[in-house]
Amino acid sequence: MKEKRGPIDFVLFADILVLLSIGVCMVFSASMPEGERFYGSPYYYLIRQSIWATLGVIVMLFTSNIDYKFWRNKNILSIGFIVVVLMLIAVFLFPPVKGARRWLGFGFAKIQPSEIAKIFIVLFLSNMIDKKGPEKMKSLTKGLLPGLIVMAIFVGLIIKEPNLSTSVIIATVSMILLFVGGAQIKYMIGLFLLGVAAVAGAILVEPYRLRRLVGFMNPWADKLDTGYQAIQSLYALGSGGLFGRGFGFSMQKFHYIPEAQNDFIFSILGEELGFIGTFFVIICFSILIWRGIRIAINCKDKFGSLVALGITSIIAVQSSVNFLVVSSFMPVTGVTLPLISYGGSSLLFTMAGLGILLNISRYITKDGVD
Fold it and tell me: Confidence class of residue 108 from pLDDT cuts 50, 70 and 90?
């Protein structure tokens, strides 16, 4: 008998749309100077982001109506793995953009395969953990190894782009799923230490990463180079005060913060909307994470629970890193703020993942909740 499904989590759905709307508005405000300077129109980024946002909503509605058990199909996961790996390799056939090879396609149609990899690793690990069961997951060779191999392939290819920040997010989300899935603490500690050593090695082999770390330790020592972005971000947040300068009245977006509509859009938001605005956005992300965890806890089967946790973890980890970077609690790294920052493929696949989360919410148990 076909399982009866209920309505989607309306609180989560409304919260996603609120964040998306804030993102489109802030992209418009933050990008006006750059759009005017390089493309002859202050509406350049607004138009593109609005198109991606519309496509994102369509994709979210589409995936929210596909039974989440569809994604545990062995053939789909096998084909998906091959496609994602080939896409991650194919980026090296395209010319670099600002020193990195992260995109496929040209012009408006560019996508980042690493964004697909984030969602795929959640689906793959959730299915693997569910099928192996808690006993096998306690074993390193019989339980953890297949998932670690897939994760290592993705992480290795993405670091090569280079894109250390996305690699760390994928690894972190994978560790969360493996730990919740039943992996032994001793293995998780070992993997954590190995990951720290790998990140340290990746920083040491690339001079620009090491300069960023040194700049983070004391940004004022080199305020025109390694410490520049961190200092300008703090200027923006600090000058916003309680209520902000007002929407559209940021000073830092006038070429003080490079590409203010991307990684540092939260700084512009703080400058224009003040502490009240930033607090509201953080509350919205907290609601999203709360509803995601609620869905994971109350899902009727382990696969759905793990997928819900994985997708929620992506949002939680990525948004937390962005908040820490713009407030200078972490070294500067290229992590966008989900649903808020400018970016087509990032927004599209984030919305696809949230659609899957909404679909899982249709099948959760209501006992003892709300």
Answer: low
Residues 155-208 have pLDDT tens digits of: 999 998 888 889 999 999 999 999 999 888 898 999 889 888 888 887 777 777
Residue 97 pairs in a beta bridge with: 100
CA distances from 216 to 120, 206, 228, 342 (A): 33, 16, 10, 24
Q: Up-side HSE of residue 246: CA atoms within 13 Å toward CB?
A: 1
The answer to whether 68 and 357 have CB atoms below 8 angstroms apart is: no
- Backbone φ and ψ for 104, nearest 5 degrees, come out as -115, 140
- Cβ neighbors of 336 (< 8 A, separation 6 or more) are 262, 263, 318, 322, 342, 343, 346
Report the C-alpha gap between 36 and 337 in whole angstroms.
Answer: 23
Backbone angles phi, psi at 111, to 5 degrees: -130, 155
**φ, ψ at 23 (rounded to 5°):** -60, -45
Domain locations in the chain as residue ranges: 10-361
